[in-house]
Amino acid sequence: MTKTSGYVAITLFSLFFLFTCSAVGEEKRVVQVLRLEGPISPVAADRLDKALRIASQEKAQCLVVKLDTPGGLDKSMRQMVKAMMNSPVPVVVYVSPKGARAASAGVFITLASHIAAMAPGTNIGAAHPVVMGVGGVDKTMEEKIVNDASAYIKSIAQKRKRNVEWAEKAVRESVSITDEEALKLGVIDLIAEDMQDLLEKLNERRINLGQTVAVLKTAGAHLHLIGMTFREKVLQTLADPNIAYILLMIGIWGIILEFFHPGIFLPGIAGSISLILAFFSLQILPFNLAGLLLIILAIILFVLEIEVPSYGALTIGGIIALTLGSLMLISPSAIYISISLTYIIAMVVATSSLFIFVVFYAIRAQFKKPATGLEGMIGTTGVARSRLSPRGKIQIHGEIWNGVVQSKKEVIKKGEEVEVVKIAGMRLVVKKKEV
Predict the structure, then answer these.
(1) Residue 221's CB: how many other CB atoms inside 10 A?
(2) φ/ψ of residue 264, rounded to 5
């Protein structure tokens, strides 16, 4: 019985040991997934840094970055490239889902990955640099910027052993290719239908991490999606050019309302916050300085119309400047990033209608007959308290006034109704009320 019990104990211990080892091995087979959609911004760079830390701490097999971007900020892109080039964890950039793209900054990020993959029906390219914050630069400066971007992408392609010639063309000639063309030209490593297909094709691949070589064990690995925090969602939303435009207009409205009604505080506070958020959004977008200046000019013209009425001339100029500025706000060279025409029309119509309404009532008030003081008595009706030939007494609003007939030939009898024509000193010039 003792030997039998010993055998049973050894067997149970062996099974427990094998189960524990299997569980540990299974636990290590984790793949972290980060989804990056929209413009490349400081938020995207911070999310990648966080994802790499998590993947390293949890000893993940690799980090898969599902990418779909039209491009974005050069500084953020370089931060992301640097993080991937020095990552202790294999990074797989997967341009996905079908119909997605890796344009502009997305090309640099894809080429910098340890393994570049694309889903069917996706494209990559158009990496010509776009200058942020200005309407344009001189030819010499543009050439310097392009040369710098070209050298940068060539060094990345050489390090990852990818097609250097095509990488340079993507920058200098803005060429763009499909997933199949990218695989054929050696721009990417593989095409995968979905995440499951990607994991199967990544399995057993050897990744050079500098001093070490990692062998991926991704078949059947668990996928852990790294979600966005509330803060990241808010900041990512601000990277939308439509949101930036709306915030800019709200900010301008708020400042104007506070200017004309000081002491309310709420419009000024809301406007200031909106303007700060708008400028944060514009710094990560290829905005055109000329467009922003036209929008500011439009607001100045609207305000001047209220202060110095031009009977619509300044308002018309403001509408034209606002429309052109809105269309030009995002640089036309950024072909994938633009403000929706629907938003532009809505904001131009709303702003123009507001100022047209104000101008209409300002002009109307100028032509309106005074309602108080002596001027307010012109056009009112009274009764002759004595014979007016040409002078006499009249009663208006219960008050007795000295009156004089407008025409010396006209005689107004006592008790007849009179109408005030004008004021002459303290006398009211009147005429007989027409029936």
Answers:
(1) 19
(2) -75, -35
The catalytic residues are 104, 144
Instruction: Identify which has the larger pLDDT, 320 or 434.
Output: 320
CA angle (111, 112, 114) in 5-degree steps: 100
Identify residue 77 by its one-letter amino acid code.
M
Residues 351, 355: Cα–Cα separation, whole Å: 6
With a CB cutoff of 8 Å and minimum separation 6, the contacts of 428 are 377, 382, 394, 396, 401, 402, 403, 404, 420
Quote the tokens at residue 55: 């993947």
* Dist CA 217 CA 187 (whole Å): 24
CATH number for the domain whose boundaries are 14-232: 3.90.226.10
CATH superfamily for 374-432 is: Nucleic acid-binding proteins (2.40.50.140)
Among candidates 192, 173, 194, which has minimal Cα distance to 183?
192
How far is CA 301 from each of CA 235, 251, 307, 346, 406, rounded to the nearest angstrom? 33, 17, 10, 19, 45
Confidence of residue 255 (pLDDT cuts 50, 70, 90): confident
The pLDDT value recorded for residue 105 is 92
Q: Please say if the pLDDT value at position 374 is more than 90.
A: no
Q: Is the pLDDT of residue 2 over 60?
A: no
Instruction: Give the C-alpha separation, 93 to 100, whole Å.
Output: 13
Among candidate residues 28, 73, 431, 358, the one with its CA nearest the CA of residue 239: 73
The per-residue pLDDT of the chain, averaged, comes to 83
> Quick one: 85 exposed, middle or buried, by C-beta within 10 A (0-12, 13-18, 19+)?
middle
Domain extents in the chain: 14-232, 240-367, 374-432
- Tens digits of residue pLDDT in 93-135: 999 999 999 999 999 999 999 999 999 999 999 988 865 544 4
Which residue intervals of 339-426 are DSSP H helices?
341-367
